[in-house]
Amino acid sequence: MSDTPLDPNDPLGQLAAGLARGALQWTTDRISALLKQISDRQLAFVGNPDLIAEVKDHRSRPEYLFYIEYLTDRRLRLLALMGLTLRDYQNDPLRQSELKVLRSRIKTKYREAGLHVAQIVQSGILAELIPPVLSSPGDKTDAARRIEAFLNDSERLCLFIQDKDPIDRRVSEIQVYLGGSKPPLFVLFARGKAKATLTEIVHILKQRLIPYGFIAKDLDKSLLVIFITNTISIGV
Fold it and tell me: Between 3.30.70.970, 3.30.1330.30, 3.30.110.20, 3.80.10.10, what CATH number should domain 156-236 receive?
């Protein structure tokens, strides 16, 4: 499906390298046209002109340019942009007040569901999710459809596990949902101490032989587990 397969161990690095080589055939005119698709009016809810300028700067980033190859929905494109900005603020101890302000304004404008999408990008989940989707049967249109469907229903399909989550109850909820709805993609994410909770949850699910493959990614301070149909079990 892709002329330049992504390295599952470093998807963001591969995205940047691919774009640097022109693998996605971006032209100056095309980039200019895409940048204009998110207008100042659409960003007005951010409020602060300086914050708006910083958000706009992310439109030319390789990671964002790659995402919009698979995001046709302008709402999702804008939320991806917000997620990249949230990540920058999260990683800067001096920008924590801006982080809180932007999160609050995203939630006010796009409700909890929109903030959830932005946080999926912020956490690096979307970057890790794309390689297995691209490896699945189908063409680029099919991949885009799967990715957008996942993001549009991400409150159910992507759970952020907390340290004190009751493990047995979480396992039962996940097993019932996967058994009933049978989504092609399902994601669990944990940060810090919650990584141990997520590891135990996945261990129990694997013992129960649910009909999904597991792709686990230890992202330094966080753990991501992707449940995907028709894939090889890598394990946790």
Answer: 3.30.110.20
